[in-house]
Amino acid sequence: MSLDLPSTGCRSTPVLKERGQREVFCGLTGIIWLHRKMQDAFFLVVGSRTCAHLLQAAAGVMIFAEPRFGTAILEEKDLAGLADANAELDREVARLLARRPDIKQLFLVGSCPSEVIKLDLARAAERLSSVHSPHVRVYNYSGSGIETTFTQGEDACLAAMVPTLPASTARELLIVGAMPDVVEDQCLSLLTAMGIGPVRMLPARRAGDLPAVGANTVFALVQPFLGDTHAALTRRGARHLAAPFPFGEEGTTAWLRAIADEFGVSRDLFEQVTAAPRARALKAIATQSQELRGKSVFFFPDSQLEIPLARFLTRECGMTAIEVGTPYLHEGLVGPDLDLLPQGPVISEGQDVEKQLDRQRAARPDLTVCGLGLANPLEAEGFSTKWAIELVFTPVHFYEQAGDLAGLFSRPLRRRALLNKEAAE
Amino acid sequence: MKLTLWTYEGPPHVGAMRVATGMKGLHYVLHAPQGDTYADLLFTMIERRNHRPPVTFTTFQARDLGGDTANLFKDSARDAYARFQPQAMIVGASCTAELIQDDPGGLAEALGLPIPVIPLDLPSYQRKENFGADETFFQIVKALAKPMPRTDAITCNLLGATALGFRHRDDVAEVTRLLGLMGIAVNVAAPMGSTPADIARMGQAHFNVLLYPETGETAARHLERACGQPYTKVVPIGVGATRDFLHEVSGITGISAKVDESGLRLPWWSASVDSTYLTGKRVYIFGDATHVMAAARIAATEIGFEVVGMGCFNREFARPLRAAAKAYGVEPLITDDYLEVEAEIARLQPELILGTQMERHIGKRLGIPCAVISSPVHVQDFPARYSPQMGFEGANVIFDTWIHPLVMGLEEHLLTMFREDFEFHDDAGASHHGAKAVSRVEAEELGVSHPQTPVGYLKTDEDMGEAREIPVVTPSGEVVWLPDAERELKKIPFFVRGKAKRNTEKYAADRGVTRISVGTLYEAKAHYAR
Q1: Count of domains observed in chain B
Q2: Do B1 and A56 make contact, defined as CB atoms within 8 angstroms?
């Protein structure tokens, strides 16, 4: 094990808590990847034209096929009478399901306006579930900006599914969090090679593959933003295997180790299974991190991946963290990563974007990780940036992607160097 | 409640942001929850702006709702004034804040800021983005522009250009240059490029040029009433419209409309023999009404296409669009539902679509080439090069842009002659296009379904999504294609196959023929031969 703890990690570092303007997406954005992951699901946002426009902007106005998400846009008359709004919703859902018989799971997704007018989507989901069962299961969760930040939308979605999962007493491992299929397959093959199984996934690719859960279930999270899902699974009696998140060679090894220990995998077998991919990951990181060594990094809050990523960049890529901002700090989940993160950076939670920009400009970091609204303006001021959203939309977990992950951060620096060289000639 | 998959327009506060972001020295305090800041990226990513939009979002959360969101607004407005020191401020609510009824206008007034504070009332559940831009610009002009002595020389204001507008940057430059040829200077171009101080001196121009009725007409009408400034009604997109525009300006100013046209190339490019193959190509046009009407005139009279259908997404301009459609003998389609547009295009099987980013997707799905003529557009439609739509250079740009998606003239013949040739075959596509969509089958074999696939802000749409091969013969109505006829249809080159299929089916249906044979196909061909 390479888990040599720094003499002092960041777990007890006082957290700078801020509130003010937040430059982050709301939870609806998660639909963009969730609808690709769950291939028989439709996400119906009950909201305003703004919600529809957000999804379109976040998807880059470019998903070409008819998407498996849409917005039921509230109009003036829906605001006047909630009874009518419910009738309208039932009608739109019936029409949608008639047109899309491939849909097996329907998520009614609450938005800011639906929350403010107190449209009860939980009851609507129950009502619609009974109308359309057994063919379609209807869930509801809120992706509203008044309650959720960006990746919290996935958390809310998965947490909404947990109470409906069938009960089981089998001793099973449940892996929680949406991953690209290619990464999911790598994860499963590593676990299988250690003799661990059966392994269930949440979310599942199709409704028929949904896991069962119970007191003998142990679960591991692959994303640090799944606090509510963690709580919901715990309520079902499942037990969490706390570990650093599987980013980079070190994170992946520690994450696998926690599972291997739980299932009594021998040190030898663990070494045998992980030795080759670990070596590949280290080699790839070494190549990609040449530009990163000795450089400083500043994280604006975005995806909640910030703390594990800061751990990866500081410990495996030789960077120094100046500030690690996260929208929400769930110590129970990122505690093991905080333990490993060397002391030094400001750990901040929440955001007042103007004040944070003042700190960022004063610190002049070599690399700034931020959202899309800030990236070009900061580039124009002379800062190298990494748009945080790419970290969510790119396969970055586990050994084979460790080099790619480092590459996401080194490319902006390499690019700036290239362009500056051109300018100097 | 209306189910929407994609929208042509955002909410009205995004229209207000387009005005604010185009201007300098103006700040917008928007009462809005977290998440509404997504709109910043429209400007910083799609338009590649190097500054953040001058917008402060109050970012209220669920826990604030029972408490004091009004004070949150006041603090935000006060902080924004202190930090940004704008010359004027606009204040308003997004859709959610509209529901909590905090009255941003009244709250901001109570702050007693030493600058003009202009309240916006933009009904989010009734109106859309263009209305928001038009109304915001009008309110700013109404608050700041006053009658004043005219400039000695004849000058005008250019109205309607905003941030995130389709080619607004270059249209303003081109029309400024065009008016310069007549000896007319631009007093203020607004909202894009202006400051509140500039708005205050708009009254000294002799007349106004309304570039974009969608976003500038209410302000133009107001200035006509309040400052006695007439405004131009012709939008100078296309050769004929540009000349008409110059005559309209001449009528207002008494200055000769005769200007140097030596840079104008569209008429010769269109008349040269290589363009013969463009004759009568069937085009479908959809977008905002102003650009659609201009495009129809160019298509029909300056390039020699046949307009087979047209429509717009902005109901506010339905009346002039209907009138224009009547002139071309086609049914207008007024809708903001892109599925209706797709169905109409599938029915008409045009050879070229002139549309928005949405129609580009439709075209890709149906295998029909598309050129973009109107917002909403994507990052690739904000080119680095000078690329106006208006004026004579705009006409040149339009010729190139519309012709590019088509297969070239001689190549059409080669494809027709060597249908099954190993190089000149259908699936190879037009030879001057580098990228070719992969077929759906291949995409599935590769298992492309993980989350990194669907998103990529800066990729061209050719890289994106699932390319779908439309079946050559789809069941349509009662008509059945016999196997031989179907094989024959496949031999027809892709760029005319849709038309041949549609014509044959119509020919068969008109005659009560339910089974299409090879004979029917060629009878229809003879019938429709021009």
Answers
A1: 4
A2: no
Q: What is the mean pLDDT of residues A129-157?
A: 95
Whether the pLDDT of residue B242 is over 70: the answer is yes
Residue B307, SS3?
A: strand
Q: Hey, which residues of B are catalytic here? A: 274
Tell me the torsion sign for CA atoms A299, A301, A303, A308: positive
CB-closest option in A29, A56, A372 to B6: A56
Q: Which of B221, B253, B285 is the last residue of a domain?
A: B253
Assigned CATH topology for domain A15-22+285-424: Rossmann fold (3.40.50)
pLDDT digits (tens, 9 = 90+) for A362-412: 999 999 999 888 999 999 999 999 988 888 888 999 999 999 999 999 999
Q: Examine the pLDDT at B441 and tell me if it is beyond 60.
A: no
pLDDT at A291 over 80: yes
Which of B11, B40, B459 is nearest residue A53 as measured by Cβ atoms?
B11
Question: Which residue among A63, A88, A373 sits closest to B465, beta carbon to beta carbon?
Answer: A63
Give one DSSP letter per residue of A29-71, joined into a string: GGHHHHHHHSTTEEEEEEE-HHHHHHHHHHTTT---SPPSEEE
* Band of residue B431 on the pLDDT scale cut at 50, 70, 90: low
Q: What is the pLDDT of residue B361?
A: 87
Q: Is B514 on the interface with A (CB under 8 A)?
A: no
CATH topology of domain A172-278: Rossmann fold (3.40.50)
Q: Are A66 and B18 in contact (CB under 8 A)?
A: no
pLDDT > 60? residue B293: yes
Q: What is the CATH number of the domain that holds B506?
A: 1.10.8.550
The segment(s) of chain A belonging to CATH 3.40.50.1980 are 15-22+285-424, 27-148, 172-278
Asked if residue B25 lies in contact with residue B197, where contact means CB atoms within 8 angstroms, the answer is: yes
CA gap B432, B407 in Å, rounded: 8
**Contact assessment for residue A36 and residue B454, using Cβ atoms and an 8 Å cutoff:** yes
Give residue B263's region: left, alpha or beta (phi > 0; psi -120 to 50). Answer: alpha
CA-nearest of A411, A408, A406, A404 to A183 is: A404
First to last CA, chain A: 48
Q: Decide if B431 is inside a domain.
A: no
What percent of chain A is helix, strand and coil (3-state, nearest 5)?
Answer: 50, 15, 35
- Residues B155-214 have pLDDT tens digits of 999 999 999 999 999 999 999 999 999 999 999 999 999 999 999 999 999 999 999 999
Over residues A342-355, mean pLDDT: 96
- Indicate whether this complex's ipTM tops 0.90: yes
Looking at B253, B274, B291, the residue that finishes a domain is B253
pLDDT digits (tens, 9 = 90+) for B379-395: 889 999 999 999 999 99
Token pair 């109308």 is found at: A131
Q: Report the alpha-carbon distance of residue A149 to residue B109 in Å, rounded.
A: 32
d(CA A176, CA A397): 13
* A-B contacts (CB, under 8 Å): 244
Nearest residue of chain A to residue B8 (CA atoms): A53
Q: What is the pLDDT of residue B183?
A: 97
Q: Are B206 and B152 in contact (CB under 8 A)?
A: no
Return the amino acid letter for A26.
C
Quote the CA–CA distance of A247 and A283 in Å, as a whole number.
15
CATH code of A27-148, in short, is: 3.40.50.1980
